[in-house]
Design brief:
The protein is of the alpha/beta class. The chain is built from 19 helices and ten strands. Helix 3 crosses helix 4 and helix 15 packs across helix 17.
Length: 490
Amino acid sequence: MITLLGLGPGDPALLTREAWMVLEKARVLYLRTRRHPTVDALPAHLILRSFDALYEQEEDFESVYRAIAAEVLAAVEREGEVMYAVPGHPLVGEATSSLILSQARQRGIAVRVVAGVSFVESTLQALAAHSAFGADGLDPLRGLQVCDALELATAHHPPLNPDQPALIAQVYSRLIASDVKLTLMNQYAPQHPVWVVRDRHVERVPLHELDHADRFDHLTTLYVPPLPQPGSFEALQEIVAHLRAPEGCPWDREQTHESLRATLLEETYEVLTAIDAEDWQALKEELGDLLLNVVMQAQIATESETFRMSDCIAHVIAKLKRRHPHVFGEAVARTAEEVLNNWHAIKQRERAQQAEDSSALDGIPPALPALAQAQKLIHRAERAGFRWQTLAERLGKVREELEEITNAESTTQRAEEFGDLILAIAAWAEGYGVDLEAATREANQKFAQRFRALERLARARGITLSTLSREALLALWQESKTLAAADATR
């Protein structure tokens, strides 16, 4: 039998009566760590054996916890009964307890849990007593999240809802605090306030200064308050679901996948416009509008029991992991080119597993703008092996199509040849690695800026463009290019 016993949050007075009675009858007590104030107040007859040495021997905390669990299980096999004590409550933020429980069940070993006051209660009490914290306090039943600092330190984005408060336990050191800070700053602003709670001492600091002082030990907990205004994905889903509900908005309730097509395309182009203009404030807003459309589409699908947002996210997570074996698997890719080669090889294997009549061109959206679709078709065909070998061959094809336009004998034939020319230009651009859609958008924007400058010049001089000679128009155009360039640098 294994007894998992909680020593409480640090004050010996908080050791439970049950725990004391069990300890009085015990002979040997295994400790995850001696670094706990209650240890010195334990019954004097106990033989204490700690695992502190493993923290120096192992490479990381995960390895330490696995080693502790293995030694506890080996001890119970050897001794028949083992009592293992941990800070706080054995089942609240204690990784070794989870490992021991899981492995004990697999081996048919009985486990008894002796409760302890967890770090949660003591942290909430310390925060509530702090004069600057506020009168409302925290209620664990109202969305309080609990997270382990060691788990958070290895993440790249915090697994937290930023609209709800969070407690982060076991912030052992400045090094761990630094890693936790970097992860949190992928969600929270650098100035977001956080509270460092150590024993009964509470300190409020901006997130970016969390690791600027040595304020940490094995009993330190971090409190992260919610964002000042709703900013979570869940909050957006709630609002969209509310809008679609019977008591919601009549217009939103009438929307369908089909009716939202136009706004989806419009929002996408507005995102591209913001990127082209390097207007990051506009990009922030336009990405939000685009995300709204995505969430609305998923909500409509949810209501019809077609799929849910979690299905969309699970699909893309699985695909990203599958197509990045050099990150999430054993494959090696040292350069961006190697990554792309791996990516396309994986996609080809995926297509090979599909129907025999599948094509390398499958999955290209028919609603793509024609220019983007042309280059996508060329790109896919070339990946499948249908390609020109040299840039000279690509240019030769462009010249061939130009000649065919010139020799066309009807409007219909000429239109067809213009289409062939665009496709040949797409292949030529592909040879240089040029994104033709983006390049054309930039050219359109540049032309629009120059033409507006031309119109301003003409108005300022009282000139009607249609009356100008070709030479005068070209001269004015050259002036407008200089004026537009000057406007762009302001």
